[in-house]
Fold:
Amino acid sequence: MAESGLSSEFSGSMTSSTLPPPRTRIFKIIVIGDSGVGKTCLTYRFCAGKFPEKTEATIGVDFRERLVEIDGEKIKIQLWDTAGQERFRKSMVQHYYRNVHAVVFVYDVTNATSFRSLPAWIEECKQYALGTEVPRILVGNKCDLQDSIQVGTDVAQQFADAHSMPLFETSAKNPNSQVDGGYAGGNSDHVEAIFMTVAHKLKSQKPLVLSQPPGASGATINLSRGINDGGDGSRGWGCSC
Ligand SMILES: Nc1nc2c(ncn2[C@@H]2O[C@H](COP(=O)(O)OP(=O)(O)OP(=O)(O)O)[C@@H](O)[C@H]2O)c(=O)[nH]1
Structure:
């Protein structure tokens, strides 16, 4: 018995039970934006399926992940929930910008200041060598607070267009609500749909190519897309909702 097992192993006729399990791909997605816009709540909603009862300001970075299946492949989506407050992020910042596959910029639709901060967040990404080759999306959160909206869909859409990113408006608190202007639809969980759209986009890319940004230190590696992948940034792969 033992002998026949050995011979089949060395004969090259490996059965599926002897093959090593396929490696699970990991997509690292960082979520950035001002303090209080709801980054923790959005990432918690996607990974835990509910709105957290209580949140505190993130210190440094929090890390959540969820295993999903896309077209028969198991993929681990890692969401890096970064601190919005400057004093809580300084020491960590270079760590979470490493090996990023996609960036989610978040603003609070009830807080115009958080929207005006977006250029600074985009600039920070550039400083860490994350350019438009890395898929980026813009998320306006807290759409459930309809009476307090300060950032209209039109102005947000203009900004998104100018920066070649798709715009999603949603609510981590009530992602099933339906309102005008593209927020949520039917009974689906809109937050879920947003992160899954990013994951589908990443999966559909040409094999990720390791590349070293010019002048970067040896520790920094960027993942960029294959050459036939559109070339127009992330515009055009937007909301499927
Ligand atoms: N009404 C409403 N409140 C929300 C929503 N998302 C988050 N909040 C509230 O907004 C506050 C801040 O949410 P967080 O998720 O902690 O914000 P953050 O962006 O992670 O903040 P930092 O960790 O400081 O960067 C909390 O009181 C949440 O309950 C939402 O969709 N609707």
Notes: The longest helix spans residues 190-204. The chain has one domain: 26-178+187-204. The radius of gyration is 20 Å. Residues 35-41, 55, 57-58, 83-85, 141-142, 144-145, 171-173 surround guanosine-5'-triphosphate (CB under 6 Å).
